[in-house]
Design brief:
Radius of gyration: 23 Å
Distance between the termini: 39 Å
Number of strands: 10
Strand content: 5-15%
Largest sheet: 8 strands, mixed
Helix content: 40-55%
Amino acid sequence: MNRRALLRSAALLGATALGSSLIHIPFAVATEFKPASGEPVYFRGWQFRTDVVQNNVDTYNKAFEGKVDYATVTGDYPAIMEKALIANEQLDMIYANPSSAVRYNGGGWVLPASELPDGKEIADGMYPNIREAWSVDGKLLGLSYFVTTRGAVHVFTKPYLAAGFTEDQLPASWDALYDMAYALKEKGVATPILPHWFAEYFGISWGFVLEVMNRGGQVADPQTHKPAMTLDGPAGKTLEAWKKLWKSGLVPEEIFSYNEAAYIDAFRSGRYIFSPQQLYDLKTFNDKAQSGDVAGHVTILPSKEQSWGLIDSALYVMTARKGRSDAATDDVKKFVSWYGYKDENGKYAVASRWLKENMLFSAYKDVMESEEARAAVSSSLMRPEDYDRVLGVYSKTPYPNGIWNVVWSEEFNFWLREKLFAFLQQDLDAESVINEANAKITELNEKYKI
């Protein structure tokens, strides 16, 4: 029995002995989550729904007389956090994408979530593919903030159906998707597809990585991080399909300058039928107040023959701040556990709130497979039955361990982004791009002694 279950059982037994009127008092309020050191817990997050975060922190502080100091960091969050960690500044809990978490862990700045009292229970309760994405050497680096599928292929069904196709004919693979784009062109659709070629750091480079993985390949080996691309394999097939699509004239050149907001706006304008987008943006696209041109007509391609997209996620990470007392570290663990896992009532309170308010999915199976989740997500979809399609895509989404769970992840991503733009805009040949990408990975492995 873990500590949480033991304390809750003791609470019920004690309350029963004193009288049934006391059974409702949650014992963990006073024992499991109440800080004891008297020191602040420093929590720094990036700019997303800071009102929700502050309210969650206020709830904790009020309930447990806590001293959590929360503030928002503006600018290049990963770089700012890394500088603060190097300087051993007052940081106890931060957000991190997996690649950043791995880099921070390599610097010795992370206190793994595996060291929480409920560490094994927490890890066992996650979807295996996500737990693997967030672990290094068998250690879970953090708790679930959000998880989503970037590259889930959204479908604006109204013009698709109007072109004479049925839902049974929806593409089940990347090759079939491109074939359908050309078939729609023959039906008079000017721009049937909006590919994942935009300018953000998670744009064209992630678009390449996710398609290679969906086709059954890897950019680099998940364990050794050695290059794994070949011209006759998924990487070469992806580049071949991209070059054909680009030369077809179906994709406007302006996409190369889009930020994420422009990319989202382009799809919800109704000009496109297919586009790999964030899974949680189904809520945006089916909201009449935000996306009147497409709302009520957007679904996603189901996962049948292959996966779609890749795992995009963030964790709540505890720091291994030097000089912090053991008592203060214990307080950090209490807050992180309450915020990133279960509250005093055994509820996934914070995770459930993110799901309801922003359709941010959780790594925890109990959250995602609950009737509460079904109701919350279904209300944001084209039709309630799409929930099973969403969960099916989400649960099968792969994660690029080979290039993300390694310290050189961000360096390679920047290089790949520029090389892929050049591949399309300067008409480079696929073989040279693959050879150069493999050489770059080898160079980075040698640089960091991987």
